[in-house]
Each structure stands twice: as structure tokens, then as C-alpha cells.
Design a protein that fits this description.
The complex is a heterodimer. By secondary structure, chain A is mostly helical. Chain A has two domains: about 1-100, RNA polymerase sigma factor, region 2, helix turn helix motif (Rna Polymerase Sigma Factor, Chain: A, Orthogonal Bundle), CATH 1.10.1740; about 115-190, Arc Repressor Mutant, subunit A. Helices cover about 70% and strands about 0% of the residues of chain A. In chain A, α2 packs antiparallel against α3 and α7 crosses α8. The longest helix of chain A has 23 residues, at about 20-45. The model of chain A has no long low-confidence stretch (mean pLDDT about 85). Among the domains of chain B are: about 5-50, no CATH class; about 135-235, Immunoglobulin-like, CATH 2.60.40. Helix content of chain B is about 30%, strand content about 20%. In chain B, the strands form two sheets. A four-stranded antiparallel sheet of chain B has the order 1-2-3-6, with helices on one face. In chain B, strands 5-4-7-8 form a four-stranded antiparallel sheet, with no helix packed on it. The longest helix of chain B has 21 residues, at about 105-125. Chain B starts with 10 loop residues before the first helix and ends with a strand. The relative contact order of chain B is 0.12. Classes of the chains: A mainly alpha, B alpha+beta. At the A-B interface, α1, α2, α3, α4 and α5 of A face α1, α3, α4, α6 and β5 of B. The complex binds zinc ion. Zinc ion binds next to α3 of chain B.
Chain lengths: ~190, ~240
């Protein structure tokens, strides 16, 4: 049977991956490889480690696609969570020191990225990005500041508190309020 | 931490990996027992993932994909296939396909893959049963003659597809929850609602190979799901 994997949904790709169809993994890489590599790269600040993380995540997809829970998360969320977890693990437990590369929200792109997605999906992503920028812009600067360190530096609560010379409780509150607001604004 | 103490305040931080190890472990322990907190965490993880879409793009080296594909092909030993051992009910396939000509293409595709892999396995086994009998379980209702369900298990017994028809569509506050039943233990097989015409088809992902579960049930639960069935059983085998 010949299947054009490029036209199937992410979840269906995973079903093919469970059935050991390498081409389905190849298409999933085309869709998300660039995103996952970029996420890893900005966290660990190092090309070689970002490559290792990206490979780790796709290896895990290949071996563990059946553990994906469609009722809990989109495929993209599953992939980006694994990527962030792996990268932050390296930062915290393996003592990786990134040569940062400090990002501000203004650096964040809204460039179109068609990648391996269909035009419809690419347009949907573009609209999502614009929503994200609008949502972030609405947050008070003090919340943007802590979220930035959490998000792109992979800092823990206490590392953020140290960096900003701020009480731990304040950091926790700002993170919580910021994320609550984003959840409210961004949820479909 | 006991299940009476929710961890709502820590979920955003947990989703962003901000907690210290001991705090994270406490939250994880609570999440294992609390569907409400898990659902809230899922929402924060979705937000975190959305934020990643705004990450400035850095192109990976072109050979990264080549490395990946070479590696998985090298390691891809063909796995032994587990064979579901329970006798399966025969089923009238024609009825299902005739009533539902307009399958969502992706789901139809998933179903076709399952059927083909089941068929291939049957051939390997030189089994005399017809493919339609193999790896399928019908679900019926004690209260409605029209409501029916079907679980098609993949040839390797690992996963399957759930198809239901003629169930009432639920309000947003409720969901159907599929239960995978083994040794009297009920494990959630996911939450779903049906379309306006009472129909649903989706892939089932289960912690153990799906063929390990001899029985299945579907109950009506709150939208965020329940750790165990609490509502009326609408379908079962
Ligand atoms: Zn809870």
C-alpha cells in the first residue's frame, strides 16, 4: 500500500510509526525537526547538544510512540515537552553551561514557517504565533521578565530569584499570574 | 502529598520545569491520583508548547535527519508479534461500512492500516478464521438497541481503534471515558465525545498492549475524566 504520509495528521503518523514505518518518522521530522532543534538550541546554547537532544526526542518517538496520549496533549505539545525536559535536564543535572545568547520577547519571530506542514496548517501556525505575541504583549513587563528567564534560559524558580535579586515568593507569584493569563488568552 | 491537597498553584511552574526536584516529585505523585490537576497541567503544557512556536528559528544541520534515519533503520529489528488470544466475536463489517460512507480520511486510513496488519498477521499464522473475526471486539449497550461500538486491535496486539455510533452527544461538562479492564482493574483509555450524528472513530493508546485487556467499558464522566468509572455504563463487551 502506498501512503502519502505528508497529507496525514500527526496522530495518524504516530500510528504508522508504531507500525515501524520509517517514512512516517521522516515526515514527522520534516514537520517538527526545525522547531525542536530551535527550542533545544535556545535552551542549551550549543549546536552539538541541540543536535543530541533533537535526535534523542525522535529516537524516543520511534521507540515509544504508543505512550503518546491523544486525550492529554497534541502531538506538538508532546514533542516540545520532551525536548524542553531533555534540555533542562542537561542544564540542571549534567551541568551544561550555555554561552547565552540572551533573548528578549522582541526577538521572537513571527516569520512564516511552512516546514513539512500543509498550507492550511502553516496558516494556522502563523495565526497562533500572532496570538502568542499579542498575548505576551498584554502581560505586565515584570511578568514577561520572569517568564522569559523560565522559558528560554530554563532557569528554576530559585535561579530566577538569584538572577533578578528578587524574593522567591515574588518570582513564583509573577510566573503563576503570567501563565494563568496566557492560559486564559491562548486557550481555544 | 495526599490527593485531598490539590497542587493547582504549582502546575504552571511544573509545566515550565521551574520546580526543585523534591517539589516536582510531590506534584508528580499527586498528578498520578488526581484527574482534575492532570487536566489543568495538560492545559499549561499546551500553553508552554504554544510559546515554543515563537522561538526564533535556528536551522539544524542538514545531516541531522540523515543521521536519525540511518540510526533507526539500523536498529529496527522486526519485533515478535504478540497474538491476541481471546476468541473474538464475529461481526458484520458490511453494516459498518455501508452506514458510514464518509469516514474522516485520517481515521479511515488508520483503520485500513489496522485491517491490513491484522490480515497480514492472519496469513502468517495460516489461520483459517476470516479476517473480519480477527482482533475485533464488539461493544453493546444494555439500555439502547442502537448504540454500538467496535474495537479493532492491531495485528501485533499493541494498539487499536475505537469506533462508536448512535451515542448521544454530551454537553461540554461531560465526556465519554473508555475503560480498559484487566483482572478487575480499570485503566482509562481516554476521553471523547461523539459528533452530532453520534459517531466517533479514534486510535486508542494504552499503557500495556491493547490485546492484554479482555474487557472494555464506556461510561459518562465529568469532562476532565475520572480515575475510575463513576457514571452510567453506556457500552461494554
Ligand atoms: Zn488535584
Amino acid at each position: 500500500m502506498s501512503v502519502d504520509y505528508r497529507t496525514v495528521e500527526d496522530q495518524t503518523l504516530l500510528a504508522h510509526i508504531i507500525n515501524r514505518r520509517a517514512e512516517a518518522l521522516s515526515v514527522l521530522y520534516d514537520r517538527y525537526g526545525r522547531l525542536l532543534y530551535s527550542v533545544a538550541y535556545h535552551l542549551v546554547g550549543n549546536q552539538q547538544l541541540a543536535e543530541e537532544i533533537t535526535l534523542d526526542v525522535f529516537r524516543r518517538v520511534w521507540d515509544k510512540a504508543a505512550s503518546y496520549r491523544a486525550d492529554r496533549a497534541s502531538v506538538r505539545t508532546w514533542l516540545t515537552s520532551m525536548t524542553r525536559n531533555r534540555a533542562i535536564d542537561m542544564l540542571r543535572r549534567e551541568g551544561v553551561r550555555p554561552e547565552h545568547n540572551s533573548i528578549s520577547w522582541a526577538d521572537l519571530t513571527i516569520e512564516p514557517s511552512a516546514d513539512g506542514h500543509s498550507p492550511e496548517t502553516a496558516v494556522a501556525h502563523q495565526m497562533q504565533k500572532q496570538r502568542i505575541h499579542a498575548a505576551l504583549a498584554e502581560l505586565p513587563e515584570e511578568q514577561q521578565e520572569v517568564l522569559l528567564l523560565a522559558f528560554f534560559n530554563g532557569y528554576s524558580h530559585s535561579q530566577i530569584a538569584d538572577q533578578l535579586e528578587m524574593p522567591l515568593g515574588t518570582v513564583k507569584t509573577r510566573i503563576r499570574l503570567g501563565m494563568q493569563k496566557l492560559k486564559l488568552v491562548l486557550q481555544p | 502529598m495526599s490527593s485531598e491537597t490539590h497542587v493547582t498553584e504549582q502546575l504552571a511552574a511544573y509545566a515550565l520545569n521551574l520546580l526543585a526536584d523534591d517539589e516536582a516529585a510531590q506534584v508528580a505523585a499527586h498528578l498520578a491520583t488526581c484527574a482534575a490537576c492532570q487536566a489543568e497541567l495538560d492545559a499549561y503544557q499546551e500553553v508552554t508548547s504554544l510559546l515554543t512556536l515563537a522561538t526564533p528559528t535556528v536551522l539544524p544541520p542538514a545531516n541531522l535527519k540523515t543521521r536519525l534515519m540511518q540510526e533507526i533503520k539500523a536498529n529496527d529489528d522486526v519485533q515478535e508479534t504478540a497474538v491476541p488470544t481471546n476468541p473474538r466475536q464475529p461481526i458484520n463489517w458490511r453494516g459498518w461500512f455501508r452506514k458510514r460512507p464518509l469516514w474522516q480520511p485520517a481515521l479511515a486510513l488508520a483503520l485500513i492500516i489496522l485491517l491490513i496488519s491484522n490480515f497480514q498477521l492472519r496469513q502468517q499464522l495460516d489461520d483459517t478464521r476470516t479476517p473480519a473475526n480477527f482482533g475485533t471486539i464488539t461493544l453493546s449497550s444494555e439500555t439502547s438497541a442502537e448504540a454500538t461500538g467496535l474495537i479493532i486491535i492491531s495485528g501485533d496486539g499493541e494498539y487499536g481503534t475505537l469506533v462508536v455510533q448512535n451515542l448521544p452527544q454530551l454537553p461540554e461538562t461531560q465526556a465519554y471515558q473508555l475503560w480498559l479492564i484487566k483482572d478487575g482493574q480499570r485503566t482509562s483509555g481516554g476521553l471523547f465525545n461523539v459528533s452530532e450524528d453520534g459517531y466517533l472513530a479514534r486510535i486508542i493508546y494504552s499503557p500495556e498492549p491493547l490485546a492484554h485487556y479482555p474487557n472494555f467499558g464506556i461510561t459518562i464522566e465529568p469532562a476532565e475524566g475520572s480515575p475510575g468509572p463513576t457514571g452510567n455504563k453506556v457500552l461494554g463487551n
